[in-house]
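Can you please make up a whole protein chain along with its backbone structure tokens because I've never seen that pairing?
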Amino acid sequence: MSSIPGTSSRPGKQGATLRYTAMRLGIFAGCFLAIWGLVYARVLPAGLGDSNLMWVLLLALVVSGPLSWVLLRKQRDAMSEQIVAKVDRAKERLSANQSQEDV
């Protein structure tokens, strides 16, 4: 059991949201760079006029979404466990405060 209140005793569960977000941004950045390179090499079509950056951003979002869904399943589960635990603790504190006020 952890000695610090409000922290998990399971290693790796703390900071799960930050870890998931960083990994998700990393996948997006990798997709962005890969697509930018493919557009620069003229393998993929460029956007019309000045819309090239928007085209690459949109395509990177579309590609990175499903990749993140598949590749980051464990991190997403760890993040949801962390969030559920925090919500449960907040509900317990709220009900304890309400029961004290009723006395």
About this structure: The chain has one domain: 16-97. The helical segments are 16-40, 52-71, 73-102. The first helix runs from residue 16 to 40. The two ends are 32 Å apart (CA to CA).
